[in-house]
Design brief:
The chain is of the alpha/beta class and about 525 residues long. Helices cover about 45% and strands about 15% of the residues.
């Protein structure tokens, strides 16, 4: 077992470096394969252990950027996510006995990813296999099968490699042609779309600008400089207006300000209200601003609000997925009075439920605030209901010196490919930019600079297959796993003739190619 756990550590670290900023993508299928090998031929009562070790190595290293918030939040989140990999190690034991077992194992991996994206406390999608595929051949599959579908194919690739390894152990040799066949079969669903890239006709074209006002000092403390930050966004918008007036920059249809561009309620604070109003009047087009809005003594809202030069504040989107223990305290009755670090979250941020896109200057805009971009639900809902353009309003200031910035921007690029939409990212101090539907970066602003970015973007009405099937694929994998457990239980009962046997008791012979 010690050897298995050591192998699991190496595999977990290999999976972590498959993601940006290191992005050694070639290691990803090998890491998944090693997970399945390390947990192979063990009963469920012990298979969870190498799975848990794999998950800890993967999540603790992948989420290293969380350490800037504090050791307790970083380790706490990583260990919570780790539990899912231990559960997966035990859950696949009965599925290994079924015909076509690699398919069952891949479905189990995706079911696990889907569940940990929702629970506990809203889940955490970071580390889905698909989030490592931008700038790789696999990205071509995104508009066809979505992030969940790409994760399924990558998990299947790993499961097939593990199966080939196990077969080689029994045969004592794996011919070279066998390796080629396994890799060809595994990679075909991912590589096939590159032969016929997804395309659609645009239905319009507009100019859009995003303002990055920057954060003073080392760039990490928004609350210490909140008035300066809003004032800087106003001044940069006024510079954009001057460039428009001088003919140096085309007039945008609207301007995007990032999350936390106003960190206090402008409807209650006269200075904040004046800064926004002044910026809107200077550019004379709507501004979609990231605004914190009071919700009473116990609650607060993180919203994108459209400020029109004529009608004022109008349409708004509320962040769907506030960060647990950062923007709200789940089970406050349990944690709030015992962990002093949580006292700074005096009011809980309330999540939104809006499914319709925003109306901004005649354009239907699908909005996502910060970590919302990592979740499928909000973006899929708005795009499927007519969103022609995706906007990501984000702060991430406390993570500006970490790999989180690169990882989130890669997810934004994935959303562009998956939805076949332009994506406009407005970050408070980086990285802001405009992303084309093929994932390429049309224009960007360097981190920790005060600057605007302006670009002409196409609008699209088409709904990609990825958006249509996305919500159902993860649920289907979960249902498939449950069905597989029932099949395995029936098979076990027929074989053993013991109706009282449980799935957890199913085990395989201890013989194995990894010393236990």
């Amino acid at each position: 077992m010690r050897t298995r756990c050591l192998v699991a550590v190496v595999a977990g670290l290999a999976l972590a470096v498959s993601f940006p900023e290191i992005h050694l993508y070639v290691l990803l299928p090998l890491a998944v394969a090693t997970f399945f090998v390390a947990t192979d031929r063990l009963p469920a009562r012990t298979a969870w252990l190498p799975g848990l070790v794999f998950g800890a190595a993967f999540q603790i290293s992948l989420l290293w950027w969380m350490h800037v918030v504090g050791t307790v939040p970083w380790v706490g989140l990583a260990l919570t996510q780790t539990l899912w990999y231990g559960l997966l190690g035990a859950a696949v034991v009965p599925l290994r006995r079924l015909p076509w077992s690699p398919l069952w194992l891949a479905a189990a991996w995706v079911a696990m990813e889907s569940l940990r994206c929702t629970w506990p406390a809203g889940g955490m999608p970071w580390g889905r296999l698909a989030y490592a595929v931008v700038d790789t051949p696999a990205e071509g599959a995104l508009p066809f099968v979505g992030a969940t579908g790409v994760s399924l194919v990558l998990a299947l690739t790993g499961a097939l490699l593990a199966s080939a390894y196990a077969g080689a152990g029994r045969a004592r040799v794996l011919p070279a042609v066998g390796v080629v066949v396994v890799l060809a079969v595994a990679s075909a669903p991912v590589l096939a779309p590159t032969a016929a890239a997804y395309s659609a006709a645009e239905t319009g074209r507009i100019e859009v600008a995003a303002v990055q006002g920057n954060v003073p000092g080392d760039g990490t403390d928004v609350l210490a400089h909140f008035r300066t930050i809003t004032a800087d966004h106003r001044m940069e918008t006024e510079r954009l207006a001057a460039d428009v007036a001088a003919g140096r920059t085309p007039r945008p249809a609207f301007v995007v300000w990032p999350e936390n561009s106003t960190a206090v309620d402008p409807f209650e604070d006269p200075q904040m209200r004046a800064d926004i109003s002044g910026a809107v009047q200077s550019i004379d087009v709507p501004i979609l601003a990231g605004v914190v809005v009071d919700g009473g003594p116990d609650h607060v809202f993180n919203q994108g609000i459209v400020f029109d030069p004529v009608t004022g504040a109008g349409d708004r989107y509320t962040k769907w997925h506030p960060v647990p223990f950062g923007e709200y305290i789940p089970w406050r009755w349990l944690f709030g009075s015992h962990l002093a670090q949580l006292n700074h979250v005096a009011r809980d941020m309330v999540g939104g439920t809006r499914v319709e896109p925003l109306e901004v200057a005649g354009t239907r805009v699908a909005d996502a605030i910060c970590f919302d971009v990592a979740y499928d639900d909000g973006i899929y809902a708005q795009v499927s209901r007519g969103g022609q353009l995706v906007v990501v309003q984000t702060s991430n200031a406390m993570f500006i010196h970490t790999s989180q910035i690169d990882q989130q921007f890669a997810i934004s690029r994935l959303r562009a490919i998956e939805t076949h939409r332009y994506v406009v990212v407005a970050a408070i101090n980086g990285v802001s930019g405009v992303i084309a539907p093929d994932g390429s970066v049309v224009a960007s602003v360097p981190s920790q600079t005060r600057r605007y970015v302006s670009s002409r973007v196409d609008l699209f009405d088409v709904v990609t297959p990825a958006v249509r099937i996305g919500p159902w694929l993860g649920r289907g994998c979960a249902a498939l796993v449950v069905g597989g457990w029932l099949l395995a239980l029936g098979q076990y009962r027929r074989t053993r003739g013991t109706p009282s046997a449980s799935i957890s008791a199913v085990s395989t012979p201890p013989a194995d190619r990894i010393t236990t």
